Structure formats: structure tokens, C-alpha cells
Amino acid sequence: CVTIAQDSYYKDGSNLDAAARAAINYDHPDAFDTSLLLQDLRDLKANRPVPHLTYDHASYARHVLADAVVPKPVILLEGILILAEEPLRRAA
């Protein structure tokens, strides 16, 4: 089993000014880069590794970790808003 955290797919906000950063609503589906998440899920389902992402709330930046996420027979997608997006529901 491999676990993918929706929180790792927050949109990178490192280029935003302080006011725009303060306005980010992390509890709204628009905060996520859902198209990237969908592509990574497709790649994993096609048995291709994907970058291992993480999000740093202190710097408002998404980072790529050194180790890739390798495909496994079971993909567990976790996050509070994964069912809010129709494309993510269809990807299951």
C-alpha cells in the first residue's frame, strides 16, 4: 500500500505577497493543485513512480522530497476534501 496525502498538493504560494498568503483558505478545494494530484494518481495506477511531495505551511511552498513514491497494488488517498472534487471521485 502507498499513501498519498492531499495536503501535499496544496498550491505553491511561495510567490504570493503577505496579504495573499493570509487569504489562503486551506479548507477549500481551490487550495489544492487537483490536476497535479490526478496526474500523479494516473501515473501510480500505470505503475510509474511519482515525485514525493510535501507542503511547508511556514514558507507556503510545496517541496519535492528526495525519495520518489513508488507504485504499489493499493493506493490510499487521504484528505478532508478528496470527495469534494468530482474528478477525484472518478479516479478511484
Main attributes of the structure:
92 residues; single chain; two-stranded antiparallel sheet; two-stranded parallel ribbon; 3 helices; 26% strand; 4 strands; alpha+beta
Description:
This protein is α+β, with helices and mostly antiparallel strands and 92 residues long. The chain has helices at residues 18-22, 34-45, 86-91, and strands at 2-5, 50-56, 61-69, 75-78. A hairpin with a 4-residue loop joins strand 2 and strand 3. The longest helix is centred in the middle third of the chain and has 12 residues, at 34-45. The radius of gyration is 13 Å and the shape is globular.
What general outline do the C-alpha atoms trace?
globular
Distance between the termini: 15 Å
Query: For this entry, what is the oligomeric state of its chains?
Result: single chain
- Could you spell the SSE succession in H and E letters? EHHEEEH
Number of H- or I-type helical stretches: 3
Spatially, the strands of the biggest sheet line up as: 1-4
User: How many β-strand runs?
Assistant: 4
- Strand percentage lies at 25-35%
- Main beta-sheet strand count, sense and barrel state: 2 strands, parallel
Unreliable stretches covering 5 or more consecutive residues: none
In round numbers, the mean pLDDT is 95
Query: Gyration radius, to the nearest Å?
Result: 13 Å
Q: Report helical residue fraction.
A: 25-40%
Structural class: alpha+beta
